[in-house]
Amino acid sequence: DEDGNLTMEDEAVRGEMLSMAMAARNSGGKVIAQAKRLASAKSLPARSVVVPGALIDIAYLDPEQT
Q1: In this predicted model, what pLDDT tens digit does every residue of 28-58 receive, in sequence order?
Q2: Can you give the pTM of this predicted structure?
Q3: Residue 39, number of CB atoms within 10 A of its CB
């Protein structure tokens, strides 16, 4: 969403995305997210957020991704 929160509706496997984002940030790395759509701020149910926006440094929108 506009606050940077990341959901994964179309992913077959979520894996450990939150753990990987936290590890990258804790070791001084950057977290880059690729998204298909941009939702309005505060429009996503908290339960569906996989990686909170506070952990994402860069977001790239690609509406053509499969």
Answers
A1: 999 999 999 999 999 999 999 999 999 999 9
A2: 0.84
A3: 14
| 51 φψ region: left (φ > 0), alpha (ψ -120 to 50), beta (else) | beta
Range of the domain at 12: 1-66
Q: Side-chain half-sphere of 48: how many Cα atoms within 13 Å? A: 11
How is residue 39 annotated by DSSP? Answer: P
> Phi/psi of residue 32, each to 5°?
-115, 130
Q: How many domains does the chain have?
A: 1
* Closest to 3 in 3D by CA, of 63, 52, 47: 52
